[in-house]
Amino acid sequence: MEPSGYAGRVAVVTGGNRGIGLECARQLAQAGARISLWARDAAALERAAQELAPLAQVHTAVVDIGQEEAVRGAAADTLAHFGKVDVLVNNAGILGPRAPVQDYPAEEFERVMRINLFGTFHCCAALVPAMVAAGYGRIVNVASVAGKDGNPFVSAYAASKAAQIAFTKSLGKELADKGVLVNAVTPSASPTEIFGALDEARKAALLANVPMRRFVEPEEVARLILWLGSEACSFSTGATFDISGGRATF
Ligand SMILES: NC(=O)c1ccc[n+]([C@@H]2O[C@H](COP(=O)([O-])OP(=O)(O)OC[C@H]3O[C@@H](n4cnc5c(N)ncnc54)[C@H](O)[C@@H]3O)[C@@H](O)[C@H]2O)c1
């Protein structure tokens, strides 16, 4: 992406205070976008905003994306601050517990769905009207290869990511003639905080299915999102873009 590729654009990145979201926000800022970071932790948001401040104008919203009213508030605040939103990266998400399905607490299953799936839905519902009114928008949903292949003991996570992919396909078709393109990315494992501390056995298990036999770096995922969030992505919508080191078979 040319440094000026996002000149004049405003991008919201949920969960933009760390991991893949922060890297994505950094690359968007370097490419010229103004940034709104949305996440739950005010102190972490402030640290991320200070880190990005030399690169771009940065706005922050403290919001739990699983709460509809809070998301509507964050959207109104961001639109009042910048006057528009061109790009929405639905990146915030949680893994939830690891447990066999018979031991999986129903309330935890619901929490994973509320944040990963309903969070994506709430953010889209809150910002799509402004994008449609402007006749331009790019939405990128950060799903996971787990949503295509499934992963043992994280059934809630995999189900939420599969649902996020189906949501992406539906919304992409819904908005295809409105100038608003909606796509998903499906990374394999990346060394961020989502897993907590990883011992060697867990690392080996995570890499066992990845033909390239390594983790994907947040920078690599962010580069794909950067393209999908840009005007250069002009004829793809409702699509799922793999970035799994060869793991995905469809
Ligand atoms: N790291 C991986 O291996 C991997 C692989 C595939 C997909 N993903 C997806 O990438 C996305 C980013 O994850 P990451 O790896 O950077 O992990 P991470 O744990 O470092 O980041 C997750 C971010 O989401 C935010 N968040 C969580 N719940 C929230 C809520 N209710 N409201 C607002 N913000 C909330 C966190 O504050 C954090 O900023 C997630 O959707 C994850 O499922 C990650």
Can you tell me about this structure?
The chain has one domain: Rossmann fold (3-Layer(aba) Sandwich), CATH 3.40.50.720. It has helices at 19-30, 42-52, 68-82, 106-134, 146-149, 155-174, 200-207, 218-228; strands at residues 10-14, 34-39, 58-62, 87-90, 137-142, 180-187, 239-243. It contains eight helices and seven strands; from the N terminus they run βαβαβαβαβααβααβ. By secondary structure, it is an alpha/beta fold. Nicotinamide-adenine-dinucleotide (NAD) is lined by residues 14-15, 17-21, 39-41, 63-66, 91-94, 115, 119, 142, 144, 187, 189-190, 192-194.
Short description:
The chain is of the alpha/beta class and 250 residues long. Helix content is 44%, strand content 16%. The protein is globular.
Number of strands: 7
Question: How many structural domains can be distinguished in the coordinates?
Answer: 1
Distinct helical segment count: 8
Order of strands side by side in the largest beta sheet?
3-2-1-4-5-6-7
Q: Which architecture name does CATH use?
A: 3-Layer(aba) Sandwich
Per CATH, the class reads Alpha Beta
**Biggest beta-sheet profile:** 7 strands, parallel
Organism: Arenibacterium halophilum
Protein name: SDR family oxidoreductase
Pfam families: adh_short
InterPro entries: KR_dom, NAD(P)-bd_dom_sf, SDR, SDR_fam
